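From: lab user (bench 3)
To: helpdesk
Subject: output format question, protein + adenosine-5'-diphosphate

Hello, I'm new to running complex predictions and I'm not sure whether the block I got back is the full result or only part of it. Here's what I submitted:
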Amino acid sequence: MVSSEAAPLAKTGGLADVLGALPIALRETGDEVGVVIPRYGSIDLKGARRMYDQIPIYLGPARHVVAIYQAASTAFPLYLVDCPPLYDRKGFYGESGVDYPDNHIRFAVFARAALAVARLLYRTEIFHCHDWQAGLVPALLRSSFSTDPTFLGAKTVFTIHNLGYQGLFPRSALAEAGLEPAVFRPDGLEFFGRVSYIKGGISFADALTTVSPTYAREIQTPEYGFGLDGDLRDRASVLSGILNGVDYAEWSPQTDPHIPAAYSAEDLGGKATCKRRLLEEFGLPAEAMDRPLLGVVSRFTRQKGADLLAEAAARIVAEDVYLVALGTGDPEFEDFFRQMQQEHPGRIAVRIGFDNPLAHRIEAGADMFLMPSHYEPCGLNQIYSLHYGTVPVVRATGGLDDTIEEGTGFKFAEYSAEALLAAVRSAVQAFADREAWQRMMRRGMSKDFSWKTSAAAYSALYRRLLAR
Ligand code: ADP
Ligand code: GLC
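Helpdesk reply: Thanks, we reran it on our side. This is the complete output you should expect:
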């Protein structure tokens, strides 16, 4: 698998969770997986094994030199592409909301380095590539490397975790990234005169998947297609949706080391402790124990409905509820959340930042979890919420629609502050009947979204491709 993130070493979102768990789940189906990611500045090489040194990678005339390390004590081989000038930086993709100007170079070198790993260290039958950062792998295998005997018979799977991020670069990137001019065509990498790395996957992979069945349908429509719906419709016969699973070893209230008290569907007692401590941690009053506490853990972006939350927040807390939010993202929305906290002291409390233990404490301590996403390929937090007895209130889109049903959560369809508010009101009303509410919590907690089913679906796909 080729990816720009893998938990726990490199994570900004759900992509990392998937790469941290799916390779392990695939062992049960008899599939062996190695994962390749860049060695970012935040990844310590202490303990890692140097597997290969001084591999020259040419993008046209430009020469880059990479080394491959294998991370220490991971459950599967995790290869780190080390090239300090390109990856040893503060961010993965950029800093302070601005993309690095050489991302086309960074992820072109990365794609070729992944092929080098396959050539030198890890015999590969299937290249399973994730998101635009790995999009050049299928493109290279069909162009510059198409006659390379090492890769003869190898198949490619490209998984779209988020169509909103495409890796779009000016036309000049083609030569700078050392790509063959022939791939610059509408059914190749070209996207309205620019170079699109995600199209490397969409146009050239043997099979395409995305992370929920509903999102697989949605991305073929103009509303959710980000301009690529036509290309995806052209490839509909090889496109399928496979729902993400959850790593319950990481996300279970019975065993979670990050939360102050353990609890389960049979014994919910500890959840009250988690709520009380969360209120204290956020400086919210003890009265909130009797009222709904809403939680948000999110990238503060439009995708996640940050604009809806901004519009509805004052009216939400007017329902005599409390809100805790953790996130980072667009400065505009970060500022808004800070401002909400100032305007509603003792009602809304916010932490700007990325803090995994705190994300766990919010899942455990809140009564409800808000995800009013504009679009959501899968979404993991609502599935974690189910397992923590934290009732999700979600917009019915993508994976949110596929994982939340009447009886386990609250859904609304229209993308508007009014519709969000109406769903919150229904949830608040339901909360008043404590017994019925606990039944709802328990129904959610008993749902099984472990990786088993999804890993079996990927495994079957790999086998179909290899049998062709
Ligand atoms: P996405 O990948 O689109 O951000 P997902 O719901 O699939 O959305 O996954 C988000 C993952 O990132 C979850 O594991 C969530 O807990 C985590 N996460 C998001 N924001 C933060 C944050 N500010 N601090 C800690 N964890 C976060
Ligand atoms: C993306 C999507 C999210 C999905 C995650 C893992 O970040 O935004 O919905 O759960 O990838 O597939």
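A quick orientation on your result: The radius of gyration is 23 Å. Let us know if anything else is unclear.
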